[in-house]
Every structure is written in structure tokens, then in C-alpha cells.
Specification:
Blueprint: H1 6-26, H2 31-45, H3 52-77, H4 83-105, H5 109-145, H6 158-175, H7 180-189, H8 194-219, E1 230-231, E2 234-235, H9 236-257, H10 263-282
Antiparallel strand pairs: 1-2
Helix pairs in contact: 1-2, 1-3, 1-9, 2-3, 3-8, 3-9, 4-6, 4-8, 5-10, 7-8
Length: 286
């Protein structure tokens, strides 16, 4: 493996701008874009093929630890975090995250690649095909329920929330994301306003990132093909470069989420993800 070069730190810092903005705007941890960025750079740095995806996932979750915290603070100040939902989901999410990381550790790097590509296609198609209709229905629902009591939100048994939390944590650890996509989708199905769904999903990314990063450090600790500057399956120079810019830009993104219409941004983001997924599917670089 080649030694680390300073130009990659610049590459990671520039990437962190996009990661931070996405984290704040959409209540996601940025892993959906971080994993391809990290995978490509690790290939260029000469990482052993059998650890590239594991290290990308572990590094992504460690970066999300910082971006989700910044986004969480901003959304919390605006009262967009539902504490009761967090209370229901967090214990189960932590359990599911640890299980997802352990399962990922048992898979080969190539298998993890196709798991992530499947997720990226599902997510992008969901945004592209359903974006306009879902946005209009969400806006209508927000107008309809804006002045109604909290009781209008659908109430489900705590055990059902726990079950969903395990699925959110497991899936998030398996594909290296903060769980914002899963959490916000679940809350919107329960008729939560979109800003509260985004804010709560941003908050949920923080415990997922803690459990996920620690799990990937643990399962990769004795990996014989680890590279220099790695802590288990976490590559520290990439973490340093990305959080350098993603942390402040997550704050800007979260502020913008309360001012901007996201319809065109959703479409552009979805098309970008489709392009990335197609490139990953057909290229040996990933």
C-alpha cells in the first residue's frame, strides 16, 4: 500500500462539504455519498481489496458521528426533534447497529459492494419517482395537520417501534449510513410533519454512528491486512479530512432545510446517485 499523500486530505476535505450539506438538508448522515468517495480513494491508495468496503463503511459511520451531531444541535434548537420517538427507538437501534456491523464483518468486500449498490438504487429511485408526489402530499398533510393536536399522529405499540429500531440500526450499519433515510420515512408514515421527521432522523444518526464506528473498530481490530493510520476498519486521515469541512457545512445545510424547497434538489441528488450506482456496478475501481 502507498503511504498517505496530503492531496488526499484535500480531496476528503472537499468531499466533506457535500457530505455536510446533505446531512443538514435531508437529515441524513451523508454515508450515501461518503461510501463511494471513500471506496474510490481507498482503491487509489492501494488498500487490500478484501478490506476496502469494510473500511469505507467503518470510516463513513465515524464521520457521521460528527456530521449528525452538528445537524442534531441545529434541528434541536428549532424544536424539530421528537424526544419521545428517540426514547422508543434508540435502545433498539443500538442493538440493531451492533448486529449489522457484525454481519457485515462476516461478508466479503465484494458482497458488501453489491449490498450497497442495491441500497443506492432503491434510495435514488424512491427519491426520483416518488419525490414530486410525496412532496406535494407531505405539504398537504402539513397544512392539514399544522393546527391540529399532537394526538393526530398515528400511535403504535412501543414493541413495534423497537422492532423498527432494530431494522433501522441493522440496515444502517450494513450500508454505512446514519439511518436518516429509514427514520424519516418511518416517521412520515406516522404522519409526523416533515421538518420534525428530518430533525429526529438527524438525531437518530448520532447513536447509530457511535455504535457503528465502535463496532467496526472492534471487528477490524485484529485484521491482518489493515493499512497504516487505521483504527480497526476506520481510516483516520479520511475522518480528519471529511469532518474538517462537513461539521460546519452540516450546520449550514440544516439552517437551509427550513428555508428552501427541496424538490429540484431531490431530483438532482437522485440522478447523481443513479450515476454513482451505475459507475460502481460496472467499474473495478469500486
Amino acid at each position: 500500500m502507498q503511504d498517505f499523500h496530503v492531496e488526499y486530505l484535500i480531496y476528503y476535505a472537499i468531499s466533506g462539504i457535500a457530505v455536510g450539506l446533505l446531512a443538514g438538508l435531508f437529515g441524513v448522515g451523508g454515508g450515501i455519498i461518503m461510501v463511494p468517495i471513500l471506496t474510490f480513494s481507498f482503491y487509489q491508495l492501494g488498500f487490500p481489496r478484501d478490506i476496502i468496503y469494510h473500511t469505507a463503511l467503518g470510516t463513513s459511520l465515524t464521520c457521521i458521528l460528527f456530521t449528525s451531531f452538528s445537524s442534531l444541535l441545529t434541528h434541536a434548537k428549532r424544536g424539530a426533534v421528537d424526544k419521545q420517538m428517540l426514547f422508543y427507538l434508540i435502545p433498539a437501534v443500538l442493538l440493531g447497529t451492533a448486529g449489522g456491523a457484525a454481519f457485515a464483518g462476516s461478508l466479503k468486500s465484494r458482497e458488501l459492494k453489491f449490498v450497497f449498490i442495491f441500497f443506492i438504487f432503491v434510495f435514488s429511485f424512491r427519491m426520483l419517482v416518488g419525490g414530486r408526489k410525496k412532496k406535494s402530499s407531505i405539504q398537504a398533510a402539513n397544512e392539514e395537520f399544522a393546527d391540529q393536536a399532537e394526538s393526530e399522529i398515528r400511535r403504535l405499540p412501543i414493541l413495534f417501534h423497537n422492532f423498527i429500531g432494530i431494522l433501522i440500526g441493522f440496515s444502517s450499519a450494513l450500508v454505512g449510513v446514519g439511518g436518516g433515510v429509514f427514520t424519516s420515512t418511518y416517521m412520515l408514515s406516522l404522519r409526523y410533519p416533515i421538518h420534525k421527521a428530518i430533525g429526529t432522523s438527524a438525531a437518530m444518526g448520532f447513536p447509530i454512528a457511535i455504535a457503528g464506528s465502535l463496532s467496526y473498530i472492534w471487528i477490524g481490530w485484529n485484521q491482518v491486512s489493515l493499512t497504516n493510520y487505521s483504527l480497526g476498519y476506520v481510516y483516520l486521515p479520511a475522518v480528519a479530512g471529511i469532518i474538517l469541512t462537513s461539521f460546519p457545512f452540516a450546520y449550514l445545510g440544516a439552517k437551509s432545510a427550513h428555508k428552501l424547497s427541496k424538490e429540484s434538489m431531490r431530483t438532482i441528488f437522485a440522478l447523481f446517485l443513479l450515476a454513482v450506482g451505475s459507475l460502481m456496478l460496472g467499474s473495478d475501481f469500486f
